[in-house]
Write a structure and sequence with these properties.
- This protein is of the alpha/beta class and 354 residues long.
- It contains 13 helices and 13 strands.
- A seven-stranded parallel beta sheet has the order 3-2-1-4-5-6-11, with helices on both faces. It has a two-stranded parallel ribbon with strand order 7-10. Strands 8-13 form a two-stranded parallel sheet.
- Helix 1 packs across helix 8, helix 4 packs parallel to helix 6 and helix 9 crosses helix 11.
- The longest helix has 22 residues.
- The structure holds nicotinamide-adenine-dinucleotide and thymidine-5'-diphosphate (TYD).
- The site of nicotinamide-adenine-dinucleotide has 31 residues, from helix 1, helix 4 and strand 5.
- Thymidine-5'-diphosphate (TYD) binds next to helix 7 and strand 8.
């Protein structure tokens, strides 16, 4: 049976991708390679228990030997690379893990994939793809009137996270130009949706608001992000994987620029409607806290290339996607409790201490 190999498939976007991929009974099997860091949750993948099309391996992408064995055993026709340290605030407190996984890990994966790829026959080599999932944060920060990021915008990463992702993008690009490895890169804006770890803005605000805890807004709350529902991102990845041109990069964005304050207000208002607490608007819980160092002011994506060349457009508006997401968190409190372990509580206590 043909397979794809997915890295980071127990994290937020990776797990949504794997669940969505295998929802199609005709889909190729998935070899899911994940180190299971704090950000992973195997509970998310529980619906796949007993499904022979899903093989999970607890493996670090920095472990070359283990990757070699997995590739030789499962002989995937494609690799979709999600595994990363992904939280900007954590990269400020401890950048080393970001260098290790995002740069050294991507390099190790590229080397393992290259060694496997050259063993394939000419037809299989041509059909093979490695899709690298990256971020719009590599492009740096926009002013209010700057035009959106395009695929040709110069890289200008500002955080250890975005710098490590930029480095990985450059390595992926180099493996195409130097070795002919058929790679694709997607640079996506901020995602939200089910199964997102509650250290990121949207699930954090939902969880805190439900517990009547303060809703921490950094600085003046007027930083802008371009929000995309995770299923729209997963669909874009599938399109690029099946029809993207090797060596090309594709920007993915939601056409949904919002200030952080707008996002927090929208969540408060939805919760007031869907789960009133009888104490007035949840907006009362908003607390302005000291800004993140080097906080990028604005991200905005021009996803025109993906629309023109592959016919992709987001299906969710921010309003429809956020409503579904709030509903999902209301319906899945047990999932949230299962990820808010001791390690998570320690991070929250340390990071929001001031
Ligand atoms: P996440 O932090 O939720 O999940 C990352 C997963 O990678 C976890 O399951 C973790 O265990 C795994 N992992 C970490 N280090 C590993 C290692 N050394 N070996 C194997 N597995 C390892 O991240 P996410 O939000 O799902 O992001 C997935 C990818 O998408 C990342 O590459 C990220 O840079 C990119 N991205 C994320 C967003 C977003 O808004 N979340 C936007 C654009 C791009
Ligand atoms: P985040 O979800 O961490 O994503 P990123 O930094 O990768 O864009 O943050 C989204 C925005 O929300 C960002 O501008 C920082 C801000 N933010 C807060 O204001 N308060 C918070 O508690 C968090 C986690 C983020």
């Amino acid at each position: 049976m043909p397979n794809i190999l997915v890295t980071g498939g127990a994290g937020f976007i990776g797990a949504n991708f794997v669940l969505d991929w295998l929802a199609d009974p005709q889909a190729d099997g998935v070899v899911n390679v994940d180190k299971l860091t704090y950000a992973a949750n195997l509970r998310t993948l529980a619906p796949l228990d007993g499904d022979p099309r899903h093989v999970f391996s607890r493996t670090d992408i920095c472990d070359r030997q283990a990757l070699d064995v997995l590739l030789a055993t499962h002989r995937p026709r494609a690799v979709v690379h999600f595994a990363a340290e992904s939280h900007v605030d954590r990269s400020i407190h401890g950048p080393a893990a970001f260098i290790e996984t995002n740069i050294v890990g991507t390099f190790t994966l590229l080397e393992a994939v290259r060694a496997y790829w050259i063993t394939l026959d000419a037809e299989a080599q041509q059909a093979f793809r490695l899709l690298h999932v990256s971020t719009d944060e590599v492009f740096g920060s926009l002013g209010p009137d700057d035009s959106q990021f395009s695929e040709t915008t110069a890289y200008a990463p500002n955080s250890p996270y975005s710098a490590s992702k930029a480095a990985s993008d450059h390595l992926v690009r180099a493996y195409f130009h130097t070795y002919g490895l058929p790679v694709l890169t997607t640079n996506c804006s901020n995602n939200y949706g089910p199964y997102q770890f509650p250290e990121k803005l949207i699930p954090l605000v939902i969880a805190n608001a439900l517990a009547s805890k303060p809703l921490p807004v950094y600085g003046d709350g007027l930083n802008i992000r371009d929000w995309l529902h995770v299923m729209d991102h997963c669909r874009a990845i599938r399109e690029v994987l099946s029809r993207g041109v090797p060596g090309e990069t594709y920007n993915v964005g939601g056409i949904n620029e919002r200030t952080n304050l707008d996002v927090v207000h929208a969540i408060c208002d939805l919760l007031d409607e869907m789960r009133p607490d009888g104490q007035g608007s949840r907006r009362r819980l908003i607390k302005f806290v000291p800004d993140r160092p080097g906080h990028d002011r604005r991200y905005a994506i021009d996803a025109g290339k993906l629309a023109r060349e592959l016919g992709w457009a987001p299906l969710e508006t921010f309003e429809s996607g956020l409503r579904k997401t709030v509903q999902w968190y209301l319906d899945n409190q047990a999932w949230v409790e299962s990820v808010t372990s001791g390690e998570y509580r320690q991070w929250m206590a340390q990071h929001y201490a001031t």
